[in-house]
Amino acid sequence: MSKKVVTFGEILLRLSPPSHLRLTQATSFDLYYGCAEANVAASLSKFGLPVKFITAVPPNELGESSLSMLRSFGVDPVVKVQGKRLGIYYFEQGASERPGKVVYDREDSSFSLLKKGMIDWETIFQDADWFHWSGITPSLSLDLAELCEEALEVASKMGLTISSDLNYRPTLWKYGKEANEVMPNLVKHCDLLLGGADETEKVLGIKINENDSQEMIFAKWMKTFPKLKNIVTTQRIAANASSNGISASFWNGTELLHSQKYNVSHIIDRIGAGDAFMAGIIYGLISWPEDNQAALEFAVAAACLKHSISGDINLATVNEITALMSGSGGGRVSR
How distant is the alpha carbon of residue 299 from its chain centre? Predict the structure, then answer.
């Protein structure tokens, strides 16, 4: 399999109090690196695909450490070295009915200084087949929204398949633009979207009715964005911070497919589960282009396994994911 994928986003330092402590109790932190697009890149590389990750980091040990982590997964980072700081986020693990909490500290980061014209997209996309981005990048600044648009225009012109996770984070949209003022102009380039009904008006600016079914909502997405070929969405059922039911759906314009449901009874870390799903659906569509159901089942099994792994990145292998798809779960020791 030779499909080459490019992802684009900010690599962040994650600091989490150990043992489900609250941030106000913390006297030490567990350290990880990750972010939506880097998590997707690392998963895809672990699945055996060649992957480039486009980002910016500062010229210091934290910047180099984050790149070393990416390289350890086989990801090829294409980096603008600039600025003085790596973005940080603090994650407080929830438990039972106490939800998890994220506190961002990413203003004036190296990535936030990127602007249109600073990245040679034509060279980056020269040998690529697929480009993945998320709604987090254009939420950070108008400059990054314009840079994202520049990348999408080049990727479209060069014929790449384009995917996006809408990843709506209301706390990040602080520069005077609403998501639905910016995102539609970017989403129009996409072949594949990950998102849910709740984002229809807030992110895509599409009006829906209270009684619209999921099929009707996604049909409106495709009518508004004619390039869209596939839409995927995940569902969490009877969820709290420690246990979830998880399933997913796939709309291909003619039928709505549903995955099997998994019960995740002891969540270790739910951060990155959506990214694990996104990597899974990209891998699935590349591996089984004529079998949307298989791609969907692979993606939801990948997301399920991510809940058992600390840190942002899904460390599950293709064999482990396909084994779960075929019913080899239940926690038996592999000998």
Answer: 12
Q: Where are the domains of the chain?
A: 5-325
Alpha carbons 285 and 298: distance in angstroms, whole number: 10
Average pLDDT, the chain: 95
Q: What's phi and psi for 162, nearest 5 deg?
A: -120, 130
Residue 18 makes CB contacts below 8 A (sequence gap 6+) with 28, 29, 30
What is the sign, positive or negative, of the torsion defined by CA atoms of 165, 169, 170, 175?
Answer: negative
Q: Where are the alpha helices (DSSP H) in 197-307?
A: 199-202, 214-224, 273-287, 292-306
As a whole number, mean pLDDT of residues 220-249 equals 94
Buried b (16+ CB within 10 A) or exposed e, 6-16: bbbbbbbbbbb
Which structure tokens are listed for 269? 């870390």
Residue holding tokens 């972010």? 35
Q: At 327, is the pLDDT very low, low, confident or very high (cuts 50, 70, 90)?
A: confident
Q: Residue 33 in contact with residue 45, Cβ under 8 Å?
A: no
Q: Which two tokens stand for residue 84?
A: 């003085």
pLDDT at 18 over 90: yes
Q: What is d(CA 278, CA 73) in angstroms, rounded to the nearest whole number?
A: 17
β-pair partners for 4: none
Nearest CA among 100, 90, 108 for reference residue 10: 108
Asked whether the predicted pLDDT for residue 292 surpasses 90, the reply is yes
Q: Which CATH code fits 5-325?
A: 3.40.1190.20
Q: Which residue has the tokens 């796939």?
A: 250
> Has residue 335 got a pLDDT over 90?
no
Q: Which amino acid is at 22?
A: R
- Bridge partners of 246, per DSSP, are 236, 262
Please count the helices (runs of H) and the strands (runs of E) in the chain: 11, 14
For CA atoms 186, 48, 40, 32, the dihedral sign is: negative
